[in-house]
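May I ask for whichever protein you like with its backbone structure tokens?
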Amino acid sequence: MSVVPADVLPGGALAVEEQGPVGAAELGPKARLWPSLVAVYRAQLSRARVARIPLLFVATFQSIGIMILMRGVVDGGGEAQAVVAGSAVLVVAFVALNLLAQYFGQLRASGGLDHYATLPVPPAAVVLGAAGAYASFTVPGTVVTAVFGCLLFGLPMTHLWVLVAVIPLAGAALAGLGAALGLLAPRPEFATLLGQLGMSAALLLGVLPAERMPEAVRLARDLLPSTYGVEALARTFGDRPDWAFVLGDLAVCAVVGVISLAVATWAYRRAAVR
């Protein structure tokens, strides 16, 4: 029997060392924002679809009931325009501010953020996808409320197409605020409370005519993101709308929406790492 040195064997220790270190496995490409956003939006849309009928019923008929009550107080003119515009945007506030705050508050408390943290999905896609899914259900209710209000107060419906811009811009501003409240609240009960307080503020400061408010309340009204969506819609009910002011209000909504969604994304990252 012959003795063979270990260094000449293919599987020997020295032969393995001569092959050099094995290269590290390469990771796949990072998920892009838009495909991730679409995926999260579809998932949240199918989940929220179960509650769409009660959601639409409550949000829409709440605003219609408020307009019917205000009909006995407001006759017409600028006050009627404010009531109809505020009631229409209130549908968006009910979902984007109130329900979204509750959703993210419960998601944080139940550990649902850990599920999203394990997925290769950017934080912005999670926030935007959930906000977009919930806000999508506000479109029919907002349109029905605006049309009913125009018929109730005798307002023209010529420029109701501006809802195409008001709904997503006001919805983005309110959805970012609602998501941030839900993610920053220490407990889901506080998230629910903050969401309801925000919706109450949108109700009182958005539906009631600004001319009847004290100066301090008007200042608080200017700080509410939905105010500018209400103003943009209310201006279109006039005989000759000043489109420069309408575009200015919509621009403010867009800027506030970007800021609020950025804050919500930061709040999501902060809550996900805890």
